[in-house]
């Protein structure tokens, strides 16, 4: 316990401590507590903290393994060590299926049909303000009126951060949705939060545990495993709380099965020679995959990211029969990453071109 420094903030379901020896880190300690309706309903469930911490650590480990940056540093018994961040008081919600508050908010004059499936995930933002029941805010509100996060540091939620939050929310949702699908479950919706680290980078923060989503085995609402079961209880008996804990344990166990899938595609990134170094650095920073050299490409047995010069790109394309992702060094890193994640998450044959890369593509086409 010598790791635990002073309490920074205590919420309904966890306490955040300063790391006693490392100023840049915090320790998140979950509580044996479950709440619903802004805390209007609350119960103690002995053993819930341990399960919640286990779930959230497993999820962050999984997300890190596919290259999604977060504040997660390490598991430490029943606690989580994380980077200290400046929390952004916005809940980012992604939905595949219309349910819950979404149905209540959009009633007249055209109610949304229950269980309507959004072809692309529906993204929503909510301002964290318990007293006002976390009002919904639009992306445009956030863009046009950058939220002041820290007066002293003049830290604002700039449009760049807003765009990144949206991109990452989509990427996290699609990644988790895919992982749950492998377990035979539908990820109906999800809530995540972000923070800004000491270097000014936006990263995933807070927790992603069984309170953060709706999960339905076999897509069947009646089999729900998440906190919604507790929310819907008319009265809460001890037997109910035992049932809740059982569901949470089931989820903690299921997420242990989440595996980073090896990509089935080769991703070749063609860039102009002067920008090659920059692009390689970007990829290494943002990709979970390891770039290799062109010569090594001929012997690879595993799908790989190849960073090459524009001139050599045609050779790469002729060596591999794999689908290719084309970008250039000017391509925004976050965009590049998302494209890579998409390839990993699906088996799409993606050909994605930036302006410069179109010329490369034309070269390739001319060669074939
Ligand atoms: N890496 C981090 N650094 C600093 N604070 C963090 C970090 N991750 C999470 N927090 C903060 O921990 C606090 C406690 O979490 P908890 O979920 O218990 O709060 P809560 O009562 O549910 O209120 P909230 O509506 O903010 O979630 C939250 O205010 C959250 O912003
Ligand atoms: Mg919370």
Name its key features.
Phosphorylase Kinase, domain 1, 11 helices, 18 strands, alpha+beta, 368 residues, single chain, 26% strand, D-amino Acid Aminotransferase, Chain A, domain 1, binds adenosine-5'-triphosphate, binds magnesium ion
DSSP summary, beta strand count = 18
Percent range for helical residues?
25-40%
Which class of the largest domain in CATH terms?
Alpha Beta
Cofactors, ions, other ligands: adenosine-5'-triphosphate, magnesium ion
Taking all Cα atoms into account, the compactness measure Rg is 22 Å
Strand content: 25-35%
In the CATH scheme, what's the topology name of the largest domain? Answer: D-amino Acid Aminotransferase, Chain A, domain 1
Mean pLDDT: 80
CATH architecture of the largest domain: 2-Layer Sandwich
Distance between the termini: 64 Å
Shape: globular
Query: What is the structural class?
Result: alpha+beta
Tally of separate domains: 3
- Biggest sheet details: 7 strands, antiparallel
Order of helices and strands: EEEEEHEEEEHEEHEEHEEEHHEHHEHHH
Going by CATH, the homologous superfamily of the largest domain would be: ATP-grasp fold, B domain
Query: How many DSSP H or I helices?
Result: 11
Spans of at least 5 consecutive residues with low confidence:
262-268, 270-274, 285-303, 309-324, 344-368
Note the topology.
Elements: E1 4-10, E2 14-19, E3 25-30, E4 33-36, E5 41-44, H1 48-65, E6 72-76, E7 79-83, E8 86-87, E9 90-97, H2 101-105, E10 117-127, E11 136-137, H3 139-144, E12 148-150, E13 155-156, H4 159-182, E14 185-196, E15 202-205, E16 213-217, H5 228-231, H6 238-255, E17 267-271, H7 276-286, H8 294-297, E18 305-309, H9 310-319, H10 333-345, H11 355-367
Parallel strand pairs: 17-18
Antiparallel strand pairs: 1-2, 2-3, 3-7, 4-5, 6-7, 8-14, 9-10, 9-14, 10-11, 12-13, 14-15, 14-16
Helix pairs in contact: 1-6, 4-10, 9-11
Bound molecules: adenosine-5'-triphosphate and magnesium ion.
InterPro entries: SAICAR_synt/ADE2_N, SAICAR_synthetase, SAICAR_synthetase_CS
GO molecular function, one term: ATP binding
Keywords: ATP-binding, Ligase, Nucleotide-binding, Purine biosynthesis
């Amino acid at each position: 316990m010598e790791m635990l420094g002073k309490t920074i903030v205590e919420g309904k379901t966890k306490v955040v401590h300063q790391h006693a020896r490392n100023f840049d880190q915090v320790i998140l300690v979950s509580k044996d507590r479950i709440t619903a309706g802004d805390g209007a309903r609350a119960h103690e469930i002995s053993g819930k903290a341990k399960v919640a911490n286990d779930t959230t650590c497993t999820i962050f480990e999984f997300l890190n393994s596919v290259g999604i940056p977060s504040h997660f540093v390490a598991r430490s018994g029943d606690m989580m060590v994380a980077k200290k961040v400046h929390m952004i008081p916005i809940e980012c919600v992604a939905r595949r299926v219309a349910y819950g508050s979404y149905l209540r908010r959009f009633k007249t004059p055209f109610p949304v049909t229950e269980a309507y499936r959004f072809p692309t995930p529906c993204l929503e933002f909510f301002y964290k303000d318990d007293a006002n029941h976390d009002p919904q805010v639009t992306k445009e509100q956030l863009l046009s009126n950058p939220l002041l996060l820290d007066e002293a540091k003049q830290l604002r939620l700039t449009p760049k951060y807003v765009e990144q939050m949206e991109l990452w929310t989509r990427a996290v949702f699609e990644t988790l949705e895919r992982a749950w699908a492998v377990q035979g479950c539908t990820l109906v919706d999800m809530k995540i939060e972000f923070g800004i680290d000491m270097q000014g980078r936006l990263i995933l923060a807070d927790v992603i545990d069984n309170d953060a989503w709706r999960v339905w085995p076999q897509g069947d609402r009646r089999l729900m495993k998440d906190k919604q079961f507790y929310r819907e209880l008319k009265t809460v008996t001890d037997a109910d709380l035992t049932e809740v804990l059982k569901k949470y344990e089931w989820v903690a166990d299921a997420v242990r099965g989440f595996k980073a899938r090896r990509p089935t595609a080769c991703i070749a990134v063609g860039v102009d020679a002067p920008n090659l170094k920059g692009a390689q650095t970007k990829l290494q920073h943002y990709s979970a995959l390891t770039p290799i050299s062109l010569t090594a490409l001929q012997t690879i047995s595993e799908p790989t990211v190849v960073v090459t010069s524009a001139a050599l790109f045609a050779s790469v394309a002729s060596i591999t029969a794999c689908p290719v992702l084309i970008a250039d060094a000017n391509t925004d890193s976050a965009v590049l990453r998302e494209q890579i994640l998409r390839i990993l998450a699906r088996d799409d044959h993606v050909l994605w071109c930036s302006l410069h890369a179109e010329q490369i593509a034309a070269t390739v086409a001319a060669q074939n």
